[in-house]
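Journal club prep — side note

Before the paper discussion, L.F. wants everyone to see what a predicted structure for a comparable chain looks like in token form. Sequence:
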Amino acid sequence: MEAVDARNRPDFSVGEKPDPRQSFPEFFLINAEVRLGYRIPGDDPFSGAAAERRFRSNYFSIVLCFLTSLLSFIHRKHRIVISGSRSGNFKKAQRVHMMAATILIVDDEMAIRKLLTRYLGDAGYECHAADCVESAKEILAITHFDLLLCDLKMPGESGLDLIRYAKKHYPEMGRVMITGFGTPEISNEIIQVGVYGYIIKPVSKNEVLITVGNALRQLRLDLHMQAARIELEKKISDQMEKISAIMNNLSVGVTMFDTAMSIVEMNRKMQHWFPDSAPGKKVPCSHIGQCPKNNMKNDMYCEDCPMADTFRSGVTGEAVRSIATEQGEREFRLVTSPLLDHSGNIYAGIALYEDITEKMLLEKDLRQAQKLEAVGQLAAGIAHEINTPVQYVGDNISFLKDSLANIASVVTAYDRFWRELVSSGVVPDEMGRQMAKIISDADLEYLWEEIPKTIDQSLDGVHRVEKIVRAMKDFSHPGDEEKSPVDINNLLQTTITVCRNEWKYVAEMETDLAADLPLVPGFAADISQVFLNIIVNGAHAIADFTENGQKGLGKISISTSRAGNSVQIRIRDSGGGIP
């Protein structure tokens, strides 16, 4: 065997304690070669011959690299280090590593027991002996051992029976078999039982020490691996629990589909919306929301299924769908994304379902509010445009009223003068009769009575239009950014005028507004909006209660009063109460 400088590699000599700082991959390298037949027990793992055997098989190299990388990943990412692990198996491995191993020797021949005890005792191992399987079981029940070294053929139960027993009840103990039969059948049977090595009689010191040393190293590695696996499984389990908790507490639904469009997994939100589509039932994607039959591409998905599009294109997709849930029809925003394996192939897909029903309703209300705001701004402009012609219409009607009074006095004088002419005979009779008929047909007496009333009504209408226009202009005026003195009575009167069309058909408006109210600091637009909402709500309540006025008009009462430096506002309606 090629000589190797011991200073350039870890010392694996039998009977000496290995370096506890040695890494997991180095342990694995040695023992994996022994198990897979690429290293002879006792052979130098770093010799040229061993290296040649290692690289002779590409398959073994790939497997070894993968497992070594995995162990390095565990070692690096999860900090499973010798000095830090609290695992029971790790402590056992450390004890095997740092202290003299304890070995139970079981053989029915006393000479073999003494010989093995001497060989192993000289190498620093602590040895105990038993002459049969029954005695070995009794000793195992009260004493811990790191390694069991037993003969194959013994009276009563055989060594294979003891190996099976030890593997079942003491799985953390190493096992080595001694046999005088070296046939392939015996070897296969021993290996299948689960041993770390076997020795063929007659035994030699070197073979015993090499086999026991390798068995203990393999045991140490197995315990390290088991501790690392348990630690890693716990970390993975903890991470999975955290991920599961996060997924199940998301406000969005998460569903995983396989490439056959069957539901593989879904979070708690999805199960709440679609309880009949729970994972494990292997229901198709189309089962979510019960896609309409006329929109079905096949039994698995519908014509415009975003998940199917994602599987076809391999890119993230997004869509908005109206889907029937357990709680009724809801609007969902769907985001679908493919899941790729290490080769870049799609093996599954994820779909996120966001319930945007309330959001869409809010957006609808917002659009309506924006329209109303635009209408308000338009109304302010229209009010300004209407105000000018209304003013000159009112002024002209007032002029007509005054002029009519003057004309009436002139016509009255003419009528009196005409009658005097007729009575004095100055006017011919025929002409008098014609004029009398004209006056009678014109019904001047009725006109003199009704025309002033008509003018007064027209003026009243014009003044009402002016009031409404002024109220619209004031109400639609943009609110101030800072508080300013507010006339509460004026705001109430303006609001009553603006919303008159809401209450005039179902209620009578009764106001009792105190004249001595002080100005109140506030935002006029916001206060007016509050008054408007209360009055309109009251009108609607009265409309429901009176069947839109068919059972008579209700009443809305508004009063204001002064309470020291404060203002009290009371609004009452005769509608039904809050259900």
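L.F.'s comment for the group: The chain has four domains: 6-234, 250-355, 356-478, 483-579. Keep this in mind when we get to the figures.
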